[in-house]
Amino acid sequence: MLTLPTRLSLSAERKLMPNWMVSPAYGPDLTFGRIAINEGALCIECKACGRRTALTKKNCEHIWRGNKRLVRSVRFRCQNRSCGSDQVRLYNAHTTDEATMWLAGDPLPVGRAI
Ligand SMILES: [Zn+2]
């Protein structure tokens, strides 16, 4: 009789974990640290020329665990030499698969805009 409630609360906790892990609604409050923790990517699309880039902790110095800096506080410049615009759209891909599909031209699922 005493072990039953413990077992129940444990399984309730397990049920909650996945929801917590993929919680999508960070929007403007997204930090670089959160991208690192989620193993996702910061997707940047140039409004001027349409060039797309996906930054991960492998190729972006800002993406590391514990970095509380807001993604929106950083200015990004298009790496296309003939463009150089700093007018970009920002998205958060939650997985590297999402980022890969997006780089290939697919839209991201709803709610990924930052
Ligand atoms: Zn551009």
Our Rg estimate from Cα atoms comes to 18 Å
Biggest β-sheet, characterized?
3 strands, antiparallel
Shape label = globular
Measured as a percent range, the helix fraction is 25-40%
Question: What this model shows, in words?
Answer:
With 114 residues, the protein is an alpha+beta fold. It has helices at 3-22, 32-38, 96-103, and strands at 41-46, 52-55, 88-93. It has one domain. It has 3 helices and 3 strands, in the order ααβββα. The protein has a 3-stranded antiparallel β-sheet. A hairpin with a 5-residue loop joins strand 1 (41-46) and strand 2 (52-55). The model is unreliable at 16-25 (pLDDT under 50). Bound molecules: zinc ion. Residues 46, 48-49, 51, 78, 80, 83, 85 line the site of zinc ion. Zinc ion is lined by residues 46, 48-49, 51, 78, 80, 83, 85.
Q: What features would you highlight for this structure?
A:
114 residues, alpha+beta, binds zinc ion
Task: Present the secondary structure layout.
Elements (H helix, E strand, L loop, with lengths): L2 H20 L9 H7 L2 E6 L5 E4 L32 E6 L2 H8 L11
Antiparallel strand pairs: 1-2, 1-3
Give a brief description:
With 114 residues, the protein is α+β, with helices and mostly antiparallel strands. The chain has one domain.
